[in-house]
Amino acid sequence: MIKVLVANRGEIACRIIRTLKEMNIISVAVYSDADAQALHVKMADEAYYLGPSPSSESYLVQQKIIDIAVKSGVDGIHPGYGFLSENSDFALKLQENGIKLIGPSAYSMDIMGDKLSAKDAVKNLAYLWSPALIIQLQILMKLYL
Question: Domain span at residue 130?
């Protein structure tokens, strides 16, 4: 990837932008009225106005983010946490626009977002899931994610 839009704000956006810089990837920030002077906006190589302060009028408006992504010529979008990070409709819209989502696929979100479908998806795997193994995996996830 050459250019990535960070569809989030605050500390998570700063961390993503820092990592993109370390990887020599151009960073694109978006911002609302409330965070026009925020650190993530200043850190990014490019920044685009997204809309008014309420997230329902800015960070959650999928089409605005996609329009900025297309306009700025990004290869991918990193959603950060919250907002659109677990929205399979957003992932599909990005795919339709030839933009990669840095995160799980829409299919994975739909399957794993529901406990019953997630259990069905993995029950036929050739792994033995002992209670001890599950506890160890949960501990590791808390430590490293």
Answer: 115-144
